[in-house]
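Entry 14. Ran structure prediction on the chain below.
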Amino acid sequence: MKNTILACMSSADVAAEVFRQLESEDFRILNIIESAMSKREFVPIEQIQKYAKLPMDRIQFTLGKLTKLSLLHRTQTAYVGYTLNYVGYDCLAINALVKANIIESLGKSLGVGKEADVYDALSPDAKRVAIKFHRLGRISFRQTRRKRGYSLTREHATWLFQSHLAAEKEFMAMQLVYKNGVSVPEPISQNRHVIAMGMIEGDQLSKYKQIAEPQKILREILRNVRKTYTKAHVIHGDLSEYNIILKPDGHILIIDWPQYVTTDQVNAGELLERDLKNVLSFFRRRFKVKVDSAEASDYVTGKVRSLKV
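Output, structure tokens:
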């Protein structure tokens, strides 16, 4: 019955559920499998024993426990081998964030998307933070590499590694734009495929049918795009009403940065125009606020100092 319930939960929910049942030896085995997966998808049980330096019966017991808790997948073809799934990877990242005193407990889901899950969490000093789990395994390797331009240095790259790359890239972008005054959640820490950031309060702009002073909100968005371009020298690359958060105080946050590019990239201009088109089209369609795209482009790139909205 318990396994049936776990099967209906998201991997982060399962990780939060089983995390407190794990002991140091469990994490030791998970870490060994994670390291060995850089060379092969399923790690032979003999290799796990070699690095764990534990009796085979204890290895088998631990592997059985971790498999039952849905942290590992087991294969038995030419050999018996194990590989991490997202729950196991989640537990490793959560453990690292707990040890680093970044979080103390994981709370409810704040949002589930095609490529990420976001959860509420508490820090040791009872501060609310948001925890983002990247889930790039939900789309194909080839599509991810083509869309995001990752250079995979490992022969046996897995969806876990690609999610790790996505988190690293997004965290780097958030650090860069945050220090340049762009309205993004505060980047706190990153481990594996997980980012800890300042709390995200509010809702996606796409969910609002009406807002007070839409011109004011659009001005704030464009000011932030201008800072991103002229100060941080980057472009969001995937900006739309779905990753702009309207907070309860009426201000905005821009989220989801793993597709960012630098302004000197060959297709930077094209991506900026697409970002602006997405935002301006939404405001024109939803709130009847019209801004010329060429004028907006001149403003956000610093060619003119002001823009009438």
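The domain at 203-300 is CATH 1.10.510.10 (Transferase(Phosphotransferase); domain 1). Will compare against last week's run tomorrow.
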